[in-house]
Structure formats: structure tokens, C-alpha cells
Amino acid sequence: MEYYVLDHNNRPLGPFSLLKLRQMGINRKSYVWAQGWSQWLRAGDVEEINKYVLHAPTDFLTAQPTLSVSPAQPKQQPEPPKAPSVHQPAVSHPEQDKTQQQDQSRTISFVYNPTPDKKTPTSSPSTPVGKPALSKRNRHLLTWATIIFALVCLLTSTNPNIFAHRREAREVVEEAVQADISSGNTSGTDYPNGTSVDNIFDASLVYHNYYIFSTTTVQLRRTTHFLSLGILGQVFTVSPDML
Questions:
Q1: Which end of the chain is more exposed for a tag (fewer CB within 10 A), N or C?
Q2: Other C-beta atoms within 10 Å of 22: how many?
Q3: One domain, residues 102 and 166
Q4: pLDDT at 22
Q5: Residue partners of 26: CB distance under 8 A and separation at least 6
Q6: Do 167 and 92 reside in the same domain of the chain?
Q7: Containing domain of residue 23, as a range?
Q8: Is 139 inside any structural domain?
Q9: 24, exposed or middle or buried, with CB in 10 Å at 0-12, 13-18, 19+?
Q10: Do 101 and 190 have their domain in common?
């Protein structure tokens, strides 16, 4: 009887005689098929192959004749059934299997052995993840903004009020009024509220608050004069000659 076998690509080859199967070196797990069978079988499950191919005596190679088809009467070979859907082991070729194993070993070694020179990039320890470092320019801007804010707060909190201005400018206004009276260049209409400093302040002293500094003006002889400047808790007045 002649048999078909499956190659490495799960394609049927044959038919082959028992002697040819022996020479091909099939094993017990190789799939074979013969005319009249409904499915492929393992070579080890076929009694004839198991006896004369897998466990054949040493004289079988010369005793088993090779079957051939007469040219005068060509024999139509039956079409073997479809190969099993699952992957089945094919005919074993020791030399070819050894070469494939060596190639596969080299391929696996190439894939799974990373180059030692390549290193996975890591974040710099000086730059915490999620907290980007400020540039030098931004650090300078932040520093100056902090200084300016602190200075504004200081100037605002130490800005002199109107009472500090009146206290510091009182002596200057009094000296200017006395000098004006002594000169004889004034009349009663020049000081409608009297020459008292308190009356003058109550009637004409104006306090100008600019939050970080302040100023005052006063009206003498029907003319408005700049009187004082207040900043950082200090009040600076003009001289009596300027009034």
C-alpha cells in the first residue's frame, strides 16, 4: 500500500511506498493517509507503517520492492482529504530541523539581548517631575516683583496722615504769617479767618493722599502754596520764605 504524508507547510505529498517512507525518516507523529481512509492518521497508529517503517528489520530496505505504475496503464491517484485544521507535526528531517533550531536560537538571542550601550533615558534629579524649573529671566522678574510689592506695602503703611502734616508744618506757617505781618504788606482781606495758624489750617489746609506718599497745600494771601510732603513716616516742609 502507498501512503501520502504532510510536509512542513501542511501540504500532502505522495504517494510513497513503505521503503520511501523509511528513507524519508518519518516519525510516529507524522500524519499519513491512504486510499479508502476518511481522515489523516498518525504514522505510529498505522500497524503496517509501525511495523515496516518505524520498527522495520535491517534487511527491510533490500527486501521491500518499490511500487511503480506501468506507463501503458497510468494509474489515477485518489485525492487525499483536506489536511487537519490544527497545526500538525510534519515529516521530520534531522539535518533541516537542526539548521532551523540554530537559526531560531540566533534570532532569539538577537531579539532578547538588548545592546548594553543603550540606556533608558531618565529624568534629571535636579528637575522634579511635574514642577518645571523657572528660567533665569523669570526668577529675576519674580524677585523684582516681590521687592516692589514689599516696598509698596511699606510705603502705604508708613504714609503720614493729615495730623502729622499739621504738626510738622505748624511752625513754618506761623513764622511765614508773622513775617508777612511784620512787613506791613498785608491787609485785613488777606486773612479773612484771622492770622491764627489753627484757623488758617481749618479753612485752607488740603491733604492729598497718594497712598504711598502724601502732600498738603495751604492758602495764604489768597494764593495756594505747596506746604509739605510725607513719605516713610516722615514729613518734609518748605521753608517759610517760599510761602
A1: N
A2: 18
A3: no
A4: 85
A5: 5, 32, 43, 49, 53, 54, 91, 92
A6: no
A7: 3-106
A8: no
A9: middle
A10: no
Q: Is residue 82 part of a domain?
A: yes
Report yes or no: 162 and 230 within 8 Å, Cβ to Cβ: no
Q: Which of 68, 90, 106 is the last residue of a domain?
A: 106
Separation of CA 136 from chain center? 23
CA dihedral 93, 95, 100, 106 (to 10 degrees): 160
Q: Do residues 169 and 227 make contact, with C-beta atoms less than 8 angstroms apart?
A: yes
Q: How high is the pLDDT of residue 231? A: 94
State the Cα angle at 62 between 60 and 65, rounded to 5°.
Answer: 90
Q: Does residue 13 sit in the same domain as residue 77? A: yes
- Tell me which residues of the chain have a pLDDT lower than 70: 56-132, 185-189, 192
pLDDT at residue 63, as a whole number: 43
Residue 142 located in a structural domain: no
Note whether 99 and 8 are same-domain residues: yes
C-alpha to C-alpha distances, 40 to 26, 46, 68, nearest whole angstrom: 15, 10, 23
How many separate domains does the chain show?
2
Asked, for residue 136, whether it belongs to a domain, the answer is no
Q: Count the helices and strands in the chain (H runs, E runs).
A: 7, 8
Q: pTM for the full model? A: 0.42
226 to 177, 182, 208, 223: CA distances (angstroms): 15, 22, 11, 10
- Residue 167: phi, psi to the nearest 5? -65, -40
CA distance 66 to 222: 145
Give the end of a domain, one of 89, 106, 123: 106
Q: Which three cell numbers stand for residue 208?
A: 492729598
CA-to-CA separations, 2 to 34, 35, 48, 57, 68, in angstroms, rounded: 6, 8, 11, 19, 10
Per this entry, what is the length of the chain? Answer: 243
